Structures are given as C-alpha cells and as structure tokens.
Amino acid sequence: MSKYKKRNRGEAAKLEMTPMIDVVFQLLIFFIVTLKQHDILSKLDVSRPAPDPAPPPVQPENLLTITVYKDGYVLKGRQVTLSELDRQLTSIAQYNKNVSVVIKCMGDSPHAFLVRLLDTCAKIGLKNMAVFSM
Amino acid sequence: MLRRQKHTQSGLAELDMTPMIDVVFQLIIFFIVTINLEQVYKEDIILEEGRHAPLVKEEPTTMVIEVDRHGWLSMHGAQVSPPQLKSIVRRRYNYMGEFPVLIRADYRTKHADVRTVMDICSEIGLWRLSFAAIKEQKTGRRR
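The joint structure predicted for all components is written out below.
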C-alpha cells in the first residue's frame, strides 16, 4: 500500500527506454537490410529523322555516316573497332564540332553497340546524332 | 476501495509512451517503403555503360519505356504490348504535348526491338529520344 502511494507522488512519469531502443534497433536493421542502392544513370540523346519531304540541306562535309552491324561498326565502307572510331571521330571533331553523325543501325545489332557509339560521341562532344533503323 | 480513490486523486495519469512511439515508427516505415512505388523498374534489365554522357535528370514528365533482352516492352515494371504502348503515348501526347522519353533497354536487346519503341514515338511526333546507360555502378551487378 505504502509502495503504491510513493509511486504516484513522483513528479514526472517515468519513460521506459528499453522498448524504445528495441524499436530503434529494429528500424535500423530494417533499413540496413532493405537499403538498395541504384546505379547512377546517364542519358544519351538521339534524334529520330523526321519524315520531312524536304529536309534542310546539310553540307556533305558536315555529315558522317556510321553503320552498326551485329559484329561491329563500319565507317566510310571500312570495318572499324570502337577505339579506331574514337580516334577518327576525335580528329574530325578537332576541326569541325558541328558535324552531324548519322547512325544506321541494323535490326540484329545488339543495343550495347549503339550505346557505346553514342557514349563515344558524347565523350568527343558531338551533339547531333540521328539514328536510322535498317 | 481506499486504494482506488487514492489512485485517481493523484495529479497526473501515467501515459505509456511506448505503443505511441511504436505506431509512429510503423508509420515512418510505411511511408518510406511506399514513397518509391512509382519508380519501379524491371530488375532484370542490365544497361550498357555510358560514362561520358550527362546525368539523367529526374523530371516528373519523363516517360520511361523499358525493353528487356527478349524484346518485351514494359512501363513501371508492367508489361505492355506495342499497340498498348502506342495508345498510352498517344493519349499522353494529346494531353500534354511533347515530353521527354527515356528508353531503358538491356544491352543484349536487338536493335529491332528498340526500333519498335522508337517508331511508335516518332509516329506520334516525339522525335527526340534518350537512351539510359550506367554512369556509375552502385549495385553489384556486373555484365
């Protein structure tokens, strides 16, 4: 009886910390387990050629055509690797940054080839890329 | 009886905080878990690396279209057929005009399947498209 009295006379209600800490740790475990990091993504812009009956005239020296096959790239009728393409595009871009790259993509070529090529163009700083599907 | 009286006479009723805090934490968990539901993407799509391209900007108007390695199209993890995709894109285009389109295609996807998406977009009037690539790998998935 006297025990009860004493408890009620206490000034502030006693806050039990143990369950709170338990819950905080549960939360912490939950977030550590479920935390899923996402890859940081980049975007490669392309334009699709519009079916315009009279497209604006482009100077042939400003136009570069690269064909993507299922086993590699072809530039000016010659099969090239991506590093060769990188070198050639870099040298072209040195004196002409406004060059438009026309990418002709074969239907059976893997998407990775196109992305690698677009990434190389982005590295060099080429801005105008158009993708034709063959 | 005497005991009971004394109990109610005391100044403050003891408030148990523990269940309240439990509920608050449960609520926090609920909101954190559900807030990202809209950005569900297909897990089995592995993107090609593209380290030199600019970062993807999180714009709410961007439409993300996914193409998996077998050529199946999906949006927010839900599979769609080409005619369905076409009607979705067309309805959105009619409603809000031009909007950015981001194509998340697996690196093994054949270009013909990516072309399906590109053709649908260009048929409706969206000429500027973007492909997603990995700028920085954070997950353990390697090709």
